[in-house]
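How a chain folds remains the central question behind the approach discussed here. For one protein, we set the task of working out the structure tokens from the amino acid sequence alone. The sequence in question and its structure tokens are set out directly beneath this paragraph.

_____
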Amino acid sequence: DCAKAQRDEALMIENREIRARLTCDDVAWFEFRELCDGPRSQNDYIELAKIFHAVLISNVEQMGVTKDDMARRFINLVDEFYDRSVKLIISAEVELKDLYSGGRLEFEFQRTLSRLLEMQSHEYLTRP
């Protein structure tokens, strides 16, 4: 129960607005396209990691050659959240192993997949 929950909150990060569907204390829920479609940089994800210890991302799309920009941003997001021990919960239209297919970022995405799997582990989830 979070009495201070904020719906549709506009966060200003790097002088750009990022809309969270819901925030409560240091937990936030975002739509995938809000974080990975459009002008975003690693600095955005670093700032989000400083604010939130847990992030939920809904509607993560399958990515490939036509969505390499989104995939690059998603890779950066996972890297920054991983390095800062952010608990990441995603809902996706496909299984993790099928999130990326057939594009130039296949190698980089394999590392991201490995990190996503590790982020589900008890060891990762119990990090401070």
Remarks:
- Strands lie at 6-13, 16-24, 27-31, 54-60, 63-64, 87-92, 100-101.
